[in-house]
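Objective 1b of the project was to move from sequence-level analysis to a structural picture of ligand recognition. The entry below was assembled by the postdoctoral researcher (A.K.) and checked by the PI before modelling. It contains the amino acid sequence of the target and the SMILES of the bound compound, flavin-adenine dinucleotide.
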Amino acid sequence: MEQVNILIIGAGVVGLAIANQLSQTHADVVVVEKEAGFGRHTSSRNSEVIHSGIYYPQNSQKAKLCVRGNQLLYKFCQKHQVPHKKCGKLVVANSENELAQLKQLQQNGIKNGVQNLQIYNKQQVNSLEPQIIAEKALWVPATGIVDSHKFMQKMVQLAEQNDAFVVYDMEVVAIEKQDSGYVVEFADGEKFWCKYLINSAGLWSDEIAQMAGIEDDNLQLHWCKGEYYKTNKIRDINHLIYPLPNPSGIYLGIHLTINLNNEVRFGPSAYYTDQLSYKMDESAKPEFLAAINHYLSLEADDLHLDDCGIRPKLQGPQDTFRDFYIAEETKRSLPRFINLIGIESPGLTAALAIAEQVEGFL
Ligand SMILES: Cc1cc2nc3c(=O)[nH]c(=O)nc-3n(C[C@H](O)[C@H](O)[C@H](O)COP(=O)(O)OP(=O)(O)OC[C@H]3O[C@@H](n4cnc5c(N)ncnc54)[C@H](O)[C@@H]3O)c2cc1C
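Corresponding predicted holo structure:
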């Protein structure tokens, strides 16, 4: 049986950030991934936004790790030439009621330590984005965009330079606790022994926890799909444009993002699903059009299907805010087993800060 010091399950952005971090100071780090390459699920199916941390409750893991992760990610991208842009974003308000919410959002961001938040008037918004309809907007300069594929590719490269391995086509199917560590079994029958086991399996992280013997309804994931549409009609947008967060508390509202080629897309929407399917049809187009026309002027023919992703949410349809679950499980008699469950947005932004936190458990 192969013996390793640290076994990380999942080569998404979070598992790779942990591998990059731990391989700098620990020997014998291995990432196992069930797919044939890294980032084949949520980490390559997102908005690629470097979030600022304005939305999350004060002192939540999401708030702290987002604010810290934002700083670490910009530094990482600069140091390692990962394509990115600190373009900033505008959260628009078009009524008195929305302006009150905008001010609350600004205060929340300030409490979370987000710098330089300002409420802009119509003229200021127009001078930045003439095509956007907004009476007022919250200007968030810390927000940006990143090439998530290049970010993950660089972390694989750095981890491998530190003698870590990322091994593909290895699906974990069983975990057995032993006195000194864990025996992890793969779909082909192979087994690895490891001293530390890190569950960074994204959409399947609750199943991995169950394999280790954790039966906890509170850690059951709810999959929540988000779809995107793109357009060629609008050009020359240089900032991200967001509505106020959706009152359901499930997502941020259908927003406008640009990528590093200045292409415009809208989304993601949010609806719960049991299916792992990345198929889309046009049934959500009216919902998109209504949301977009709150801050722009577009017609149905201007919108084309783009892509979609699935959020691994701890928050179920009837729940209020749920935080990331990041824990070393000695309290459940599973020492050196580290669980990362419910790492939805802002997980891409927070990845490097999550990796720091995980290192603290070792
Ligand atoms: C629509 C959408 C938009 C988003 N937008 C943003 C954004 O703009 N900014 C932001 O910061 N965050 C965003 N996020 C969140 C962000 O994408 C995620 O938090 C992040 O990608 C999670 O990374 P991960 O490594 O935890 O999970 P994943 O990328 O899902 O990686 C987990 C890996 O584990 C592997 N795995 C699972 N089970 C097993 C097993 N049994 N054996 C071996 N391997 C296994 C999977 O194959 C997968 O590769 C968004 C998410 C969605 C869905």
